[in-house]
Design a protein that fits this description.
The complex is a heterodimer of chains A (about 425) and B (about 300).
Chain A (H helix, E strand, L loop, with lengths): L1 H17 L7 E6 L4 H16 L3 E6 L6 H12 L6 E4 L3 H7 L7 H7 L10 H4 E2 L2 E2 L1 E8 L2 E5 H7 L7 H13 L3 E3 L5 H16 L1 H9 L3 H4 L2 H14 L11 H9 L3 E6 L4 H6 L8 E5 L7 E10 L5 H15 L1 H11 L2 E2 L11 H15 L3 E3 L9 H16 L4 H15 L1
Parallel strand pairs in A: 1-2, 1-3, 8-9, 11-13
Antiparallel strand pairs in A: 3-11, 4-5, 6-11, 6-12, 7-9, 7-10
Helix pairs in contact in A: 2-16, 7-8, 9-10, 9-12, 9-18, 12-18, 12-19, 18-19
Chain B lengths: L5 H37 L15 H7 L2 H32 L6 H9 L6 H12 L5 H7 L16 H26 L3 H9 L4 H12 L1 H17 L2 H6 L11 H11 L3 H33 L1
Classes of the chains: A alpha/beta (about 425), B mainly alpha (about 300).
């Protein structure tokens, strides 16, 4: 009885506390950012939104890098109760807008001239026909190499300029008792390397033909075989305990010098910085080595659903303005470890890796080496890009020949068409 | 209940049906309606969201042309058969041993049953570390001096599925033991005494009399374990996440991937239907024969 009464008092108190918050309009945002730095980065958006007089109702569905969130959204839409806004990766925003559930942000776009600030290669992911349907907040680069400087010095090696050099360096690192490459066996981690190899070995145009256009000739070409051959050599750089290893654990191995390198997107940078390591001095960051370097991008964007409540629609406008606000993009990305999606901002107070990324992005936009990262859904539609991951992962852990892998790739892509 | 009032009699007649009605409704909608819906989706062209057209068996062709699905099906058969056999074997032996009037039986029973109280996620994570060659068993044995000892199944695509069997057996054999133990306790002692008077040895008594008498317990264990085997999803997710590569993919992880990660809802529905048909093909004849015989027996 006593517990019941105190529970009632507690809930009454909780309601009293919750009541005043009802007064302002809240926009519910569905996203899958749950880690500490991600939440801290989101807070910059939340604060800016509050300054405009709107509340942020957090609807975080973590897990399966967004897979669980997609499931949650489907049931919300089926029930006719979509959230106000949602974080999108890859083609998700365009796909949902094709279903007719997204509203456009064209008026805001015209008033603020947002389109000119977004890289042209990114536009296909936020613009459906003439309609701007999502606003990009950040940009990650997927094809980075993160390296431990001390490990490189110990083995007496320099930053490799090609994959052949990187693979040859593996011998020296092994001789020095260091694991050359830290990674896990999850298909996506393997695919990150595969994506890099496709454009590093075959060039950006080959990447576009194979991973985006799904061109049969490119998929079954000798170049593709060469990509798999290189991937086989990369397998030799990895230790045996790589099963079920989380990417962050692999990053930790590079941080403590157990391993020398990791190929991973720039979300790995946060792990180095959190340990107080300095770019250039303690660790190195460089693009996956190639004579034809590329910038494989990932963006997070926020799209707005059609809702009945006019107040929420206004809140959506406010949220879009906040996301595209130069200061918010700056503050958000400093915490998140990415670079602003807007290309017209200064990144002078970012760390050296971010500056390098910002500069190489500008070059990549110029010379056509700006590529959507297939692993995270920015090349072909997911049913196709997943096939690349399947084949690369099976090839990586088995004794499959490159010929068989290419055949499996072609069959798999055709089966998914 | 008083017998004098006929109305209460009528209520008593209707009560079971009234009580059962809501759950029957829930099952009809929540299970059978959605089975039908999934079946419909599996013959449609659904990709990201359901679309209600008809494309025949296209999604099934697509499904069976996917190498990953073949891996998943083979894995399901390896996993389910080994899991069922080993779990029942271990559970039965433990139950028989515990049934020998030993001391501290209650405590031991709790110890063996305890893994069942853990979620598969916990089991999977723990076994992932135990089996990791750089952290777990191999490392310990190596550091004890046996340098050449190798136990790296979890990193080997051909062996990884067996490590999942190990973890699942560890989790579930205590549960099988509990059911068998209950069955053993239900056996009349006089039967055993009669056999002993006839001069039968203890192993013989168990093999020819007691284990056959456990048939209802076997039925429960098989039904419960096979559904654990087929719905196995979280254990794979926690232990190997389908890896190395796709080596430990099972139909349930395939289905989730196709439906929610790859915009292939039709293929996902087709794989779900295949799972359902597999379960039905095994369970229905078995249930039919078992239940029919027990009805005849009464």
């Amino acid at each position: 009885m006593k517990t019941i009464r105190s529970a009632m008092i507690a809930s009454a108190l909780a309601m009293a506390v919750a009541m005043p918050a009802r007064a302002e309009t809240k926009i519910e945002v569905l996203h899958h950012w749950v880690s500490e730095s991600e939440v801290a980065a989101l807070n910059t958006i939340r604060t800016a939104l509050a300054a405009k007089g709107y509340g942020w109702q957090d609807s975080a569905v973590g897990g399966m890098s967004g897979g669980n969130m997609q499931q949650a959204l489907r049931s919300r839409l089926a029930a006719g109760n979509p959230p106000g806004a949602m974080q999108f990766l890859g083609w998700e925003g365009i796909d949902w807008s094709n279903e007719g559930v997204m509203r456009d942000l064209n008026d805001l776009d015209k008033a603020n001239n947002w389109e000119a600030t977004i890289a042209p290669q990114v536009l296909p992911f936020v613009k459906n026909g003439d309609n701007l349907i999502a606003v990009p907040i950040n940009m990650h680069r997927q094809n980075w190499v993160w390296a431990n400087k001390a490990a490189f010095d110990k083995a007496g090696i320099q930053q490799p300029k090609t994959w052949a050099e990187l693979i040859a360096d593996g011998e020296k690192l092994r001789a020095a008792g260091i694991i050359p490459l830290a990674m896990g066996d999850e298909p996506w981690q393997i695919q990150v390397i595969f994506d890099a190899l496709v454009s590093d070995v075959g060039g950006p145009d080959f990447y576009k033909r194979a991973m985006i256009d799904l061109d049969d000739d490119a998929l079954s070409s000798d170049t593709m075989k060469q990509v798999f051959d290189t991937l086989r050599q990369v397998r030799g750089l990895v230790d045996d305990g790589f099963n079920g290893r989380d990417w962050a654990v692999a990053t930790g191995m590079v941080i403590n010098g157990e391993a020398a390198m990791q190929v991973m997107g720039d979300w790995a940078k946060g792990e180095f910085l959190a340990k107080g390591l300095k770019p250039g001095k303690d660790f190195m960051c460089f693009a996956t080595p190639s004579e034809t370097p590329s910038f494989q991008f990932i963006i997070d964007s926020f799209g707005m659903f059609k809702v009945k409540d006019a107040e929420v629609t206004k809140a959506q406008d406010a949220l879009a303005e906040v996301v595209m606000d130069p200061k918010v993009q700056h503050d958000f990305n400093i915490i998140k470890g990415s670079i602003p999606a807007r290309t017209d901002l200064s990144v002078d107070d970012f760390d050296d890796c971010a500056k390098l990324g910002f500069q190489e992005r500008a070059e990549a936009i110029q010379n056509g080496a700006m590529l959507g990262a297939a692993t995270h859904g920015f090349a072909a539609q997911p049913q196709f890009s997943a096939v690349f991951g399947d084949v690369a992962a099976q090839f990586f852990v088995n004794d499959m020949s490159s010929e068989d892998a290419v055949k499996m790739l072609v069959d798999g892509i055709n089966n998914a068409r | 209940m008083t017998r004098k009032k006929p109305i209460s009699d009528r209520v008593a007649d209707w009560l079971p049906r009234l009580v059962m009605a809501p759950s029957l409704l829930v099952i009809l909608v929540g299970v059978y309606l959605f089975i039908a819906w999934t079946g419909w989706i599996s013959v449609s062209s659904s990709r990201m969201v359901p679309s209600y057209d008809f494309v025949g068996l296209e999604q099934y062709y697509r499904l069976w042309a996917t190498p990953r699905w073949h891996i998943a099906v083979v894995n399901l058969f390896i996993f389910s058969s080994l899991f069922l056999l080993v779990t029942m074997g271990v559970g039965l032996v433990m139950a028989i041993l515990l049934d020998q009037n030993i001391r501290a039986e209650g405590a031991l029973r709790a110890v063996y049953l305890y893994p069942m109280a853990l979620s598969f996620i916990v089991t999977g994570t723990a076994w992932k570390w135990i089996l990791n060659p750089d952290l777990g068993v191999q490392k310990v044995v190596n550091s004890l001096g046996w340098e050449g000892f190798v136990f790296n199944w979890i990193t080997q695509p051909t062996f990884a599925i067996y490590t999942i069997v190990i973890a699942a057996v560890w989790q579930s054999s205590g549960f099988a033991m509990a059911i068998f133990l209950a069955g053993l306790r239900g056996i009349d002692n006089s039967v055993i005494k009669a056999a002993q008077i006839e001069g039968a040895t203890l192993p013989r008594i168990y093999a020819s009399i007691i284990v056959p008498m456990l048939r209802p317990a076997f039925l429960s264990v098989i039904v419960l374990l096979s559904y654990i085997a087929i719905k196995n999803f979280d254990l794979v997710l926690a232990m190997t996440n389908g890896g190395p590569g796709n080596a430990t993919e099972v139909p349930s992880t395939f289905m989730f991937q196709a439906t929610f990660r790859r915009n292939q809802m039709g293929v996902g529905a087709a794989s779900a239907m295949m799972m359902l048909m597999t379960v039905a093909a095994i369970i229905i004849p078995y249930l039919y024969s078992e239940l029919k015989e027990s009805r005849n027996g009464h």
